[in-house]
From TrEMBL:
Gene3D superfamilies: 3.40.50.360, Ribonuclease Z/Hydroxyacylglutathione hydrolase-like. Signal peptide: none annotated. In the N-terminal section; belongs to the zinc metallo-hydrolase group 3 family. The gene is fprA. The lineage of its organism: Bacteria, Pseudomonadati, Campylobacterota, Epsilonproteobacteria, Campylobacterales. InterPro entries: Flavodoxin/NO_synth (IPR008254), Flavoprotein-like_sf (IPR029039), Metallo-B-lactamas (IPR001279), ODP_dom (IPR045761), RibonucZ/Hydroxyglut_hydro (IPR036866), Rubredoxin-O_OxRdtase (IPR016440). Residues 256-401 form the Flavodoxin-like domain. One of its GO terms (molecular function) is FMN binding. This is Flavodoxin. It comes from the Bacteria. SMART domains: Lactamase_B (SM00849).
């Protein structure tokens, strides 16, 4: 089957694929809007593939490659900017089809190729170093290492002649490419939350390394950004750079997220009271999440985007409500800046919910903690709700300050 080819610019083709069948990215994060694995093909004296795709999409991928180079054409080089298997799992399949293809990466790339795929690459691996420019046929490409954005071997490739950056995971997002692949062909704001959900859950832990990578690249003249997930940015590449910069710096909005774990609705009563008081005190964006109903990846993104956070938990077998445990584990590993934290909950026997949330607050000192926890016995009394009111008033004051 032949596909109509998508030419990004002269001799540069989009050969990426959409994945609408995988349920969970990294077997953890729901893909309700799917995901794209982008791959790019430079066609010239030598044919160069930049970043492969998930092996499960290989048949379609190969058809797209063939549409550009023809049935008798070959791929001479495969540039591997990132080794996470959502991209690298098709390397062996590509080598089966194009056995003379050279693999291009850095020293850490080589370690991962051997580690994941047990390939002998002693004869077909070209190692590139920081800032080096290599000629592949008529194309000169420059490589910059961007360690931990997303993995240790992550690097980007810059094609100076057309001022194009192949940025691997950097500047990517969840969501398939439906129709137009360029930022000027679609309403790119429609997938903004999915872009944020990808950032916060998948690469957000490495926010400081992402800022370092962006800083390293800031002096390059960039007209087009080709990431490995999501759309190609050719009209407003600065939009996605700014979007990532805002997220990585935790430039939060004046909203409050209330995430709670409840069994019989008593902790939820407190959450509602807090929400109502926030609203009466001028907070316009208040979001309540029952952690048992909404996947943590969505709650976590809303938390990242908003300045205020209330965590509430019922006690469950003298411990934290188990689903809440998953959420606070995620928050703990990401060390978010610019957030204000308040705590509430209920107990019936000897506690465990609020006690563990207080432990969380003690261990996560990057939060501005409002040290006025409210804990109700079984269900909130009038006095408990008055304490919730005071707590929410203080949260509103700090958030709107
Ligand atoms: Fe899209 Fe870190 O892999």
């Amino acid at each position: 089957m032949e596909f109509s080819t998508i030419e990004i610019q002269k001799n540069l083709f989009y050969v990426g694929v959409n994945d609408r069948h995988t349920g969970l990215f990294e077997n953890m994060w729901p893909l309700e809007n799917g995901i794209s694995y982008n791959s790019y093909l430079l066609k010239g004296e030598k044919n160069i593939l930049i970043d492969p795709v998930h092996a499960s999409c290989f048949e379609l991928y190969l058809s797209k490659i063939r549409s550009v180079i023809g049935q008798d054409g070959t791929i001479d080089y495969l540039i591997i900017n990132h080794m996470e298997p959502d991209h690298s799992s098709s390397i062996s399949l590509l080598l089966n089809v194009f056995p003379k293809m050279k693999l291009v990466g850095n020293s850490k790339t080589a370690e991962f190729i051997k580690g994941f795929y047990k390939l002998d690459i002693s004869e077909n691996f070209i190692e590139v170093g920081e800032g080096e420019t290599h000629k592949f046929g008529n194309f000169a490409l420059t490589f910059y290492k961007t360690p931990m954005a997303h993995w240790p071997e992550s690097m980007v490739t810059y094609y100076k002649e057309s001022k194009t950056l192949f940025s691997q995971d950097l500047y990517g997002g969840f969501g398939t490419i439906d129709g137009g692949i360029f930022d000027d062909e679609i309403d790119y704001t429609a997938r903004e939350f999915e872009r944020a959900r990808y950032f916060t859950n998948v690469v957000g832990k490495f926010a400081s390394q992402i800022l370092r990578a962006t800083k390293k690249l800031e002096n390059l003249e960039i007209k087009t950004i080709c990431p490995v997930h999501g759309i190609v940015w050719r009209s407003n590449p600065e939009k996605i750079v700014k979007f990532y910069d805002d997220l990585a710096n935790c430039r939060t909005k004046n909203g409050v997220v209330i995430a709670y774990g409840t069994m019989y609705g008593n902790t939820e009563k407190m959450a509602d009271y807090l929400a109502n008081t926030l609203s009466k005190n001028g907070v316009r964006d208040v979001r309540l999440f029952d952690v048992s109903k909404t996947h943590v990846s969505y709650i976590f993104t809303h938390i990242w985007l908003n300045k205020g956070l209330f965590l509430g938990s019922a006690s469950y077998n003298n411990a934290l409500f188990p689903v809440m445990q998953e959420l606070i584990s995620l928050i703990s590993t990401h060390k978010m800046k610019n957030h204000i934290l308040g705590i509430f909950g209920t107990y019936a026997w000897s506690g465990g919910g609020v006690k563990n949330l207080l432990e969380f607050a003690k261990n996560n000192t990057e939060f501005d903690f409002i040290d006025m926890p409210v804990e109700a016995h079984c269900s909130p009394s009038y006095d408990d709700l008055q304490h919730c009111k005071t707590l929410a008033e203080e949260m509103a004051k700090r958030v709107l300050a």
